[in-house]
Every structure is written in structure tokens, then in C-alpha cells.
Amino acid sequence: MPAPKGIPIPEAKAFRLDERVYDTRRTKGWMSADERIVAIHTGQVLFEFDTTTADWDEITGELVVRIHNQDAKRILRWVRHAAEHTGYFAHRLEELN
Question: Is residue 2 part of a domain?
Fold first, then answer.
């Protein structure tokens, strides 16, 4: 029986995350070539950031993370890609700019 399909590859050099159980293999998602971004077939996108760039906002008490513009655009591309292939409404994708 073929495995259920998840989201297609988000970037050319991304590689597949698999889970092996005995002689079967289940695809879990994709990881970027630099291993900083992970897209899971459920539509979640995880990214690694440097904790030294994070600061607490004294007024609101929120954690503020600074991400370089190039990295932020790349993360948003992965988020849009995962959202488009997991049934997230297209009109809501504009909010991710």
C-alpha cells in the first residue's frame, strides 16, 4: 500500500525526514539543506534561531526575536508552501506578508 502523500518538497536542496519502523518507512516532512527549517506534513513549520538575538520587551513582557530579512522571507516561503498544500485558505495567505 502506498504511503499517504504530504506536502511536496519546499526547496530544491531540502531532504526528506523519515521515520523507520522495522522495514517500513514513513515520511514526516522536509528539512532544509542547512538544517535550519523543518516543514512537517501537518503544515507546521519549525525554524532555528539564535537565542542571543532574542530580548524581552520590558513594556509588554513578550519575547522579541530578530531575524535577518533574507531568513524571514525564506521562512515565510516555507510557511506559504506548507499552508497551500494542507488546505489553508488562499485568501488568508496574504496575511503572511
Answer: no
Q: Which residues of 44-82 are buried (b: 16+ CB within 10 A; e: fewer)?
A: ebebeeeeeeeeeeeeeeeeeeeeeeeeeebbeebbbbb
For the entire predicted model, the pTM comes to 0.75
Q: Is residue 9 part of a domain?
A: no
Q: How far is CA 3 from CA 27, 56, 77, in A?
A: 8, 44, 26
Check residue 92 and give its pLDDT: 63
Query: Which grid coordinates are listed for 27?
Result: 515520511
Domain annotation covers residue 79: yes
pLDDT digits (tens, 9 = 90+) for 19-63: 888 888 888 889 999 989 999 888 889 999 888 888 999 999 999
Domain that holds residue 39: 15-96
Q: Is residue 47 part of a domain?
A: yes
Output phi, psi for 51, to 5 deg: -70, -15
